[in-house]
Design goal:
Chains B, E: GO terms for molecular function: ATP binding. Chains B, E: InterPro entries: AAA+_ATPase, ABC_SmlMolc_Importer, ABC_transporter-like_ATP-bd, ABC_transporter-like_CS, Mo/tungstate-bd_C_term_dom, P-loop_NTPase, Transp-assoc_OB_typ2. The complex is a heteropentamer, with 1 copy of chain A (304 residues), 2 copies of chain B (343 residues), 1 copy of chain C (266 residues) and 1 copy of chain D (368 residues). With 304 residues, chain A is mostly helical. Chain A contains 13 helices and 2 strands. Chain A is 71% helix and 1% strand. The radius of gyration of chain A is 27 Å and the shape is flat. Chain D has helices spanning 48-54, 66-73, 85-94, 176-186, 200-214, 224-233, 243-252, 281-292, 294-304, 311-314, 328-332, 356-367; strands at residues 25-30, 57-62, 80-83, 97-98, 122-123, 126-127, 130-136, 138-142, 167-170, 217-221, 238-241, 256-259, 265-275, 307-308, 334-336. In chain D, the strands form 3 sheets. In chain D, strands 1, 2, 3, 4, 7, 13, 14 and 15 form an 8-stranded mixed sheet that branches. Chain D starts with 24 loop residues before the first strand and ends with a helix. The chains are: A mainly alpha (304), B alpha+beta (343), C mainly alpha (266), D alpha/beta (368). Chains in contact: A-B, A-C, A-D, A-E, B-C, B-E, C-D, C-E. Bound molecules: adenosine-5'-triphosphate (2 copies) and magnesium ion (MG) (2 copies). One adenosine-5'-triphosphate is lined by residues 16-17, 19, 21, 39, 41-47, 195 of chain E.
Chain lengths: 304, 343, 266, 368, 343
């Protein structure tokens, strides 16, 4: 055995190489370590994103030459005033928030049972299959799915075909169709965080509840829902914000309706009025900030 | 003790995919008994408890609670409550709400609920903590909340799954005393799961020793300790010195397998001549100071390495060091014959 | 959890029903890919394999898929690096402004895409004066993908704690060696999960892309959007969608397997 | 790149005098289906020939509405744009496109005269591009539902209530002109002479008409597929359309028909234009010539579904009839899309016309 | 023992935001010593260990390892290694790679690394498990891997933070024996943190009892157990019967605070008359069967409720039941005077 010849001496620690000195320095100076970690991402997020966002908002106070479409740096509150006072913007904002809220509620109502089934009822195998089943539709393009719904919801589409024998009819194109389609599109984004949140609720808590006499519904209401609440809120951030800015789906299935996204899009893409578009964009920004401020303390942001 | 048992398990069996966790267990537990299930990890104790509580469905056999077959009854309709190993307190509710939960789901009014929960908290000396969240309590306090929560609904039996496992030693001893006291006060059946044999012996009226999903021996602590039915029980319940057939012949002069507890042995400078006593010579390998006692490890000349437990008091006649020659002495009646596994 | 029989059945039925609703439109898409109708009309008037043949010869479609994959890969890579750095900083240190930074990370996904889109469009073109290109798309996508990586990694870091890193330092490893040999391998599956989600987000993004893509940059969603207006192209798009859904099983399954095996290791 | 502060007044750029060497690539902004290189369908390709001939590689981007085209041209990323009349004047006014020396484009000679030197492709006699193809925004109806066969836009305006919820309209501010065309015939008191030159009162009348129509509109359409689907499924039964849509529908169902109503109709005549800051002007000129050449023009306009720009092109198409190509009479009933500007395009000087930005605002409000 | 201590802590202090976790600790630990730090939860034991390992920076005081001041040295440059309470094995590496890790970061070649790691694994009897992942090992096996990993780099001292805390009772006893054996073989300093007094007594050469960030008493197990310096130590190290000034006067007839260990007391039917012995009458409240012994709880007539520990052997003269009158007897020399906190 060769091992007999090996001298059993403690191997020296590789001292004083540059990397090691660096390590020692970093260990002793946590602030430097923090600085190095944060430098690149903060640079990116602040320089690319925040600056762009602030500049956009600044643009809201500029004006546009009505004929050439060039932006002029004339400071004015006109755009803001227009957006705040125009009946059009109020109506559309209400409609948009209404749609986003409806989509969010529907998605949460749909996501809860399926997420619960996945997390707490299904066996590990079925659970894996279900996760795949929920994730897979994400890969069929958003547009394709929206058009598919257009087909499903049309006057002689599948839905009409299914409902007609029951004496019911497809809602046709319009806000209802928009809500249905958006709910469909964002459902996986709502299911996933709720599923993850429910998985984190220990089984023993559910057992404790039923042990103490709580029936299924009571256990859901008193134990499952409160504990999954942050995850639910995280899911709503997705559905709410994605709905709030959407303009493509409403174009496809919304019939004659328009939402805030359409107004922004028309003004930037069509009317080439970036200042007004920026002013309109303020509406969803304010709404989302308000919502984030509201849900922040629930810990929802950690569950996205 | 009434004629009808609190709990009767008949041929209870639970198979998971590949393992048989519980294997044809028959058991009767009397009303008001403090009953422990003792066994090594994976022996099926928790599974039996979960079957009784209703969290698992048996693959075979029946469960009767107070004469009623509850094999198919869901947990919320069974008159038993559980104290979970990790306590399973609802983190989003205050201590009071946790305790009141069982009353709330039973539709007890707010005022009465509060009053009864406070009384239950007082019983575990936590009435000052009603408004805290579980996260703001220490381990021992949480354990007591779990107890209060399970007892406030006045179950006919309480199931406890290693409720003291997460506590540190000092606290654990203290909680053992409190648990026993609570059981006496309530007068209800406690079914207690543990893998700590000392705990089982200290607390229980009767103990079932589990091994591989079966009950290996069932009896009072004294029966188990003094008359272990098998090698496994002798070894698992307390420490012991085992003598296999060879050593039994050379040292004890008997045929079969035997066990002698360390505390039944004494060390002496010379062989004993007293009636019924026997001695064997050996060399001290180690002497460990335990505080309340001393553990001597002795290599017997013609036998195994054995352990001798002496009380740390004035009765000790020798104070041997490593390498000293000693005579280990025992009384014939303290030699316990083990039933071989096949028998 | 053991539920009452009725509850179990109800839940199972609801789940099945939701799945049916989830897959119903996809079935329509599948049917359309074999339909003789060019306008996705229902019910399909006839059966044809023409679109499947044409889809695989459509250089435009294949290019678009290639572009989308390229954009998604680079954006995901950037997001992985930035997301990991930021989660290490936020999880391992307590400092002033920590909450602000965690909000900052969430913002690009929480604000509607059209806002991010026009903000970046305005920023690149008007403020910086750089022409839009594939890189502007990558930058935009990476920005809103950071959060998915961030959330996955920080959750993992939280669970990991610092024990393993301390053990490594204790055994003589410096900061970098510890990251390479201990921290990174522990993060791998979280990175995979976050990366996969980031990839999916980028791959299917249309709104921000519309505003940040230069001329000639045709990602798949843009291709689809364009082709929805073209005669005879809609069924080809349906074919692409079907193929993507089927192909996506592989990465999702792998990710599941990896995180699954990780769970049993824990 | 073109900054916000950049951009000049209209018409200052001068046209090119002669052609130089090809730059090797050209970037084109066009309606979908205008620049096909076979990548979508190997059989639909008129770009490869161009690249072969000139060595100019083509990079193209398509846009969805005229307004989008105007925005995109502001990026300065494109050498050539195919713009409809509602975009051209804006592009010219913003200085985004340059005058085109038609002498450098041999194919220009064959183009229909009634398409040349129009207010949407020329300013003060200076040509800003080469016509591509044209078409009318026709009235389509479901023959099962709408009877008798309409001959007037009445069915989508004053008579729209009969088909409430199933009327469809084109989703663009320029659709206000359709209302103006209708008013021109039905409310002569308003004195509308050109639907793109509306003063305040005329404009208000048109907007009111559209607001009334709004309650009967099932959906606004701007993309091709949406319209086809809606008619096929019966979600829409009457509304504006393009000939090509009818052609596609005719292949699938047989219950739709189109008509050019008595009042006349709006329409488009697209123009190939060259960016004033084109990086590849020579390739750009070559493209304009190529796309106007009869065979290519025939291919491209046939694929999109519109009338070609020359008689010669009809030799390469067998469906010219359906599009009324070269039918000057028919063409005269079409009010081609023109950008409404303050300086009335009908020549009135006593009033100020409502400009396009107001049209845009009004359009949002009409939709509500 | 060499003149230079392995570890010297001088005025070591660590303050967290609001708590002083370690409060001016002075300590010298000799080379080759098995040294334990014992104390209740939160007393600062872990913090001292982390300061020595270098994971925390002290707010005051210095740390010397083998004569060199390492107060500012990063953990990876200190010649000590740690066995973590949860073992902190790298879950993505095989057992062999875990053990070889310290050699790898020191740049030892692959072949030598493997050989030395295998040797270290053999020393903990795990050479057959080299290719497993930590998750495939039992608790006790993981604990041994952690030991092998820490010892393979031949540290001058090993720091162990409750390494047996996560093991169940049987395994824990077995590992205690192995740990002690390993320390003897390696001959290096072990610094062992525990809150289990029995473990500390059994294993250690010397024990420091921590209380609120300070060392309350430092000594050999026997010194601590037989001569506790304070009320706190007497109570924390083993169980004891405390006599405050009043009861000391009535029962013991002495002035001051005293402690008598339960195993120093015997039960008898009559008062003892032997020299140096004293008795007190009382009533048995409870008798708990422990297996190796019996614990009797007795209410003394003029004194406190006390605990008497008897060995479960033939020497017992009475076998009292609840409510029986007994005489509790002790020897004057077994009464330990406690130094009052103020003194
Ligand atoms: N849900 C389950 N699925 C599969 N096997 C299980 C499940 N629950 C328990 N088992 C297996 O059943 C056997 C008995 O487990 P059980 O938890 O009852 O043991 P235990 O005696 O409580 O052990 P411990 O002392 O470790 O808690 C074990 O082999 C275990 O792996
Ligand atoms: N990182 C920290 N931040 C703030 N306080 C801390 C930190 N670590 C320890 N403490 C506090 O310092 C005190 C000593 O803690 P330490 O972990 O050293 O105790 P311990 O004796 O090891 O206890 P245990 O037996 O519970 O492990 C405690 O009050 C603890 O709350
Ligand atoms: Mg268990
Ligand atoms: Mg500790």
């Amino acid at each position: 055995m060769t091992s007999a010849h090996t001298t059993r001496r403690a191997p020296a620690l590789p001292r004083a190489s540059a990397a090691r000195r660096g390590s020692a320095f970093l260990t002793a100076h946590p602030r430097v370590r923090l600085g190095l970690l944060l430098a690149a991402p903060l640079f990116w997020l602040v320089v690319v994103y925040i600056v762009a966002l602030v500049l956009l908002l600044v643009t809201a106070f500029w004006t546009v030459d009505s004929f050439t479409g060039e932006i002029r740096i004339d400071w004015t509150l006109d755009n803001i005033v227009t957006v705040l006072t125009g009946a059009l913007y109020q109506t559309v904002t209400l409609r948009t928030v209404g749609v986003a809220a409806a989509v969010t509620v529907i998605d949460v109502l749909l996501a809860l049972p399926i997420a619960f089934f996945m997390a707490k009822v299904a066996g590990p195998r079925l659970q894996r299959i279900l996760v795949i089943a929920v994730l897979m539709p994400l890969w069929a393009s958003y547009l394709v799915k929206a058009y598919a719904w257009r087909s499903v919801l049309s006057q002689d589409g599948i839905l009409e075909w299914l409902l007609a024998p029951l004496g019911l009819h497809t809602p046709g194109y319009g806000l209802t169709a928009t809500i249905i389609t958006l709910s469909y599109l964002w459902l996986p984004y709502v299911i996933l965080p709720i599923y993850a949140g429910l998985e984190r609720v220990p089984d023993s808590l559910l057992e404790a509840s039923s042990d103490l006499g709580g029936r299924t519904w009571r256990t859901m209401r008193s134990v499952v829902l409160p504990l999954a609440f942050p995850a639910i809120v995280a899911g709503t951030i997705f559905s709410f914000s994605l709905s709030l800015g959407d303009y493509i789906t409403v174009n496809i299935v919304g019939g004659a309706s328009q939402m805030l996204g359409n107004l922004v899009y028309t003004n930037v893409g069509a009317a080439n009025n970036l200042p007004l578009a920026a002013a309109i964009a303020l509406i969803p920004i304010v709404i989302i900030f308000g919502y984030l401020a509201l849900v922040r303390r629930t810990g929802a942001l950690d569950n996205l | 003790m009434t004629a009808q048992p609190a709990i009767r398990l008949s041929g209870l069996t639970k198979e998971f995919a590949s393992v048989t966790a519980v294997d044809h267990v028959d058991l009767e537990i009397a009303e008001g008994e403090f009953f422990s299930m003792l066994g090594p990890s994976g022996s099926g104790k928790t599974t039996v408890l979960r079957l009784i509580a209703g969290f698992e469905q048996p693959t075979g056999g029946t469960i009767e609670l107070f004469g009623a077959d509850v094999t198919r009854t869901p947990p919320f309709d069974r008159p038993v409550n559980t104290v979970f190993q990790d306590y399973a307190l609802f983190p989003h509710m205050s201590v009071l709400d946790n305790v009141a939960y069982g009353l709330r789901v039973r539709g007890v009014g707010r005022a009465e609920r509060r009053e009864r929960a406070m009384r239950a908290l007082a019983a575990v000396r936590l009435d000052g903590f009603a408004d805290r969240k579980p996260a703001q309590l220490s381990g021992g306090q949480r354990q007591r909340v779990a107890l209060a929560r399970a007892t406030v609904v006045e179950p006919k039996a309480l199931l406890l799954d290693e409720p003291l496992g997460a506590l540190d030693l000092k606290l654990r001893e203290q909680m053992q005393v409190e648990l026993k006291q609570l059981q006496r006060e309530l007068g209800i059946t406690f079914i207690f799961v543990t893998h700590d044999q000392e705990e089982a012996l200290t607390l229980s009226d009767r103990v079932a020793v589990f091994h591989d999903g079966r009950i290996e021996q069932l009896g009072t602590p004294r029966e188990l300790y003094e008359n272990p039915a098998s090698h496994f029980v002798a070894d698992f319940v307390g420490t012991t010195n085992l003598f296999g057939p060879d050593h039994a012949r050379t040292v004890l002069g008997r045929e079969g397998e035997f066990s002698i507890r360390p505390e039944k042995l004494t060390l002496a400078a010379a062989p004993s001549a007293a009636g019924g006593e026997r001695s064997a010579a050996g060399t001290v390998v180690d002497s460990i100071y335990l505080g309340s006692g001393l553990r001597h490890i002795v290599d017997l000349d013609d036998g195994p390495r054995i352990s001798v437990l002496e009380r740390n008091d004035r009765s000790r006649t020798v104070d041997p060091g490593r390498g000293d020659r000693v005579h280990v002495t025992w009384h014939d009646e303290d030699v316990v014959a083990l039933i071989p596994p096949g028998a | 959890m053991r539920l009452g029989r009725a509850a179990r059945i109800t839940l199972g039925a609801v789940t099945a029903l939701i799945l049916v609703v989830i897959y119903l439109p996809l079935l329509v898409v599948l049917a359309n890919s074999f339909s003789t109708s060019t306008s996705l009309s229902w019910p399909p008037p006839g059966f044809t394999l023409e679109w499947w043949g044409r889809a695989f010869q459509s250089a435009g479609a294949l290019d678009a898929v290639g572009t989308s994959v390229a954009v998604a890969v680079v954006a995901t890579a950037v997001a992985l690096v930035l997301g990991t750095l930021i989660s290490l900083a936020l999880q391992r240190f307590a400092f002033f402004g920590r909450d602000a930074i965690s909000l900052l990370v969430v913002l690009p996904i929480a604000l509607p895409g059209i806002i991010t889109g026009i903000a970046l469009n305005n920023f690149f073109r008007t403020i910086l004066g750089v022409p839009l290109s594939i890189w502007t798309v990558v930058i935009a996508h990476a920005t809103f993908c950071i959060v998915t990586v961030f959330n996955n990694v920080i959750a993992r870091l939280r669970r990991l704690g610092v024990n393993l890193e301390e053990a490594s330092a204790d055994l003589g490893a410096g900061v970098w060696t510890t990251f390479r040999l201990v921290t990174f391998p522990q993060l791998r599956s979280a990175l995979l999960a976050g990366g996969l989600l980031a990839f999916a987000l980028s791959f299917d993004e249309i709104i921000v892309t519309t505003f940040t893509a230069g001329s000639g940059v045709t990602t798949l969603p843009i291709f689809i959007l364009n082709n929805m207006f073209r005669p005879n192209q809609a069924p080809i798009v349906a074919v692409i969608a079907v193929v993507l859904v089927v192909v996506s099983i592989v990465p999702i399954y792998l990710a599941q397997r990896l995180s699954g095996s990780e769970q049993t290791r824990r | 790149a073109c900054g916000t502060a950049g951009g000049g007044g209209g018409g200052t750029a001068s046209e090119q005098e002669e052609l130089g060497d090809f730059e090797g690539s050209v970037s084109i902004l066009a309606w979908p289906g205008y620049v096909e290189d076979g990548s979508n369908d190997p059989e639909v390709d008129w770009v490869s020939g161009f690249t072969e001939k000139t060595g100019c590689a083509v990079v193209s981007k398509s846009y969805g509405t005229s307004d989008e085209a105007v925005s995109l041209m502001k990026t300065g990323d494109y050498d050539v744009v195919a713009a409809s009349g509602d975009a051209t004047l804006r592009l010219i006014a913003a200085g985004d496109v340059a005058p085109v020396n038609t002498d450098l484009i041999p194919s220009y000679a064959g183009v229909y005269d009634f398409l040349k030197e129009k207010e949407w492709n020329s300013v003060d006699g200076v040509s800003y591009g080469v016509p591509h193809g044209y078409g009318a925004n026709l009235l389509m109806y479901n023959t099962d539902v709408v009877s008798p066969a309409p001959t007037s836009w009445d069915v989508v305006f004053d008579g729209a209530s009969a088909y409430s919820g199933k009327v469809t309209s084109y989703d663009s501010p320029i659709y206000i002109a359709d209302a103006a065309v209708y008013l021109m015939a039905h409310e002569p008191d308003l004195g509308i002479t050109n639907p793109y030159a509306l003063d305040e009162t005329q404009f208000a009348a048109a907007v009111d008409l559209l607001k009334a129509q709004r309650s009967h509109v099932g959906e606004y359409w701007s993309d091709y597929l949406k319209e086809i689907q809606a008619f096929e499924s019966g979600d829409s039964v009457v509304g504006t359309t393009w000939q090509v849509i009818q052609n596609v529908l005719a292949g699938e169902v047989s219950n739709t028909a189109v008509v050019l109503p008595d009042e006349g109709a709006t329409g488009w005549s697209d123009t190939w234009m060259i960016a004033s800051k084109a990086k590849s002007p020579n390739c750009a000129y070559a493209w304009l010539d190529w796309i106007a050449s009869p065979e290519v023009n025939a291919q491209a306009t046939a694929y999109f579904g519109e009338a070609p720009s020359s008689d010669a092109a009809c030799d390469f198409r067998d469906d010219c009839e359906a599009y009324h190509a070269g039918d000057a009479d028919y063409a005269s009933k079409i009010w081609y899309w023109t950008t409404p500007i303050a300086e009335c395009v009908d020549g009135r000087t006593d009033v100020e016309c409502v400009d396009y930005s107001k049209w845009t605002e009004a359009w949002s409000e009409i939709k509500g």
